[in-house]
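agent: user wants the full assembly modeled, not chains individually. Plan: 1) parse entity lines 2) check alphabet per entity 3) run joint structure prediction 4) return tokens. Steps 1-2 passed, two entities, 659 residues total. Proceeding.
--- entities ---
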Amino acid sequence: MSFPCCWQKERIEPGECPFLRPGDQELLYNRQQRFLTRCLECSRFWEELPNPDADLRLLAELFPCVVEALLGLRSQNQSLSHQLETRTREAKFLHEVSLVLQTSTNIDEVIAMALTAVTAGQGFGFNRAILLLVDRSGDFLCGHFAIGPRDQYEAGRIWQEIAASELSLRELARAFFEKKMDQEREKFRDLLDTLTVPMDRPDHLFIRTLKAQASCHMTDVRQEPTLEPRQAEALGVREMVLVPLISKSRPIGLLLADNNVNGRPIETDDVHLLETFALPVSFAIDRAALYEQLQSELDRLTEAHRRLQEQQETILRMEKMAAVGKVSADIAHSVRNPLTVIGGFARNLLRGSVAEAVQRQYLESILRETRRMEETLKVAMAVAEEKHPAYDWWDLNQLVSKVFTGLQEDFKIANIDCRLEFHPHLPLMRLDYPQLSFCLRSLLRHVLDVMPSGGRLEIGTRGEEDRQQIAFRCLGAGPGAPDLGSIINPLMGQGGDPGLQLCRKILAGHGATVEQEEGPAGIRIWLPQAAEISPGKA
Amino acid sequence: MERLLIVDDERDIRLLYAAELEEEGYQVKTAGSGVEAADLLKEMDFDLLVLDIQMKGESGLQLLQQIVKEKAGLPVILCTAFSCYKEDFSSWLADAYIVKSSDLSQLKNEIRRILDKHEKS
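--- prediction returned ---
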């Protein structure tokens, strides 16, 4: 359809220009505006423009406004392009952060990533980020972690380091998580402690923001009446943003961000972006905390299971021992009464006998053997019962000396010259004094038996870093060295005298090792300094 | 002269204890069971009782409970071949607990200590 072009008219009638749309009434009277918005799109205008009748004066009049509009469009285009670039960067950054947040179940890693993102130049670029978390009991909002420089000097150093490292945000967060987390936690320890607030203070800025579940942009923190002066002082900033962290409608913490070093004002866009960012961070922290709790429960269960197994084994062992104990108790009753009678009457008779009478020696023998059997019985019962092992800290020298003193007379009668050589300043060691005394006494009694012709006996102790030694060395008076096989073999578990078998059990319970010494014949017993006491072994 | 009652189902133990304690200057009576001891306790007064625990018939611990009820203040020494009864609450009613030994000095010392204590009180 053909129509006359109206571009030169100051005013047109409705329907005169086919390009006008409903609502374009203003353009009927405003030629300049009509020209810019409609005529430039009109084919008729472009057909008429080369016409020599065209009003050049009018064209010159309209030209500056066309140029102005063009420049405006160019500027707008640049701004949009910049915005697009920013949004693309933000999207990339959020994607990168989200990847870590969605995949990590380590709460420290999640926190490192989140706070690095808040403070890194590639991220939000805040100078400092502080994370407060609601504790497990729900009673306190605790200062949990903070990141950022404390002053200009530190900021310069850190930012320079980051710039030089050329790390991506993810790499930066990972490096921080692996190397600086503990250091940073300690750096802000005082601040974090100061910022801790009880949850039952609903008026406090932190709790109020958290419960309102809406972020808060404070432009002058020091004017906030509910913030304690020490907290405001510790923060040391005027402006900051507080973003609540909410997971499944449940408040889990608060994220504080500020520019404590460069004082850059916080823009509304920064706040909005931080709010958006808070959502995945909240979920990630909540999930990681739950995972940590789950892991801890799992560890507790595993530990409980292990203990249960141990207890079952102990019960089994105790049942076996109870059976052994019952038998031992019956034996004790059967043996102890006759021993009491035999030994008791021997003593009675001995008191009434003449010093020179040959019967006196017999009675002494009866008495000696009775004592020996009673001692064996006493220790056997203690070992069989094993309910309350008498392990305590004792001086080994004192123990050896005491046992030797008790047998000194017997050695004298047997013509055995004894030499004692004690290692000076032996540390105390953990042992069952009665059991080890019995063991030592039994060994020395057997040494008496293998040296019928007398001779020399060297008894000594020695100490090393982690063990102590008791040693006997026998030099018989007759030809050939005394044969210690009858003592050593039972100690090595090769049958023999029941008393010595009991000694082997006692020594095993102390974690001791026994060594045989050749020419002159000797026995070395090594007791570990820190033996693991095992009632089951004794 | 202080009067002691020895209660033990082993005849030889009774003989030994009687001989040794008489030598110490005590007047000693013996009983081979809880029933026999209860009868003697009804018949005469004693200053101290030496009581075995594991006996045929009534156990020493049962007799001990009966004595605490009926003869309050009579000192009792439990003298037994077992050390395990020390953990039995009933044995705590006795004034002393001794594991039998051929060396009677511990028993003699305890008897003396307890009698002296009672005499003072």
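agent: reporting back. Residues 532-538 of chain A have pLDDT under 50 and may be disordered. Chain A has three domains: 25-85, 87-295, 390-528.
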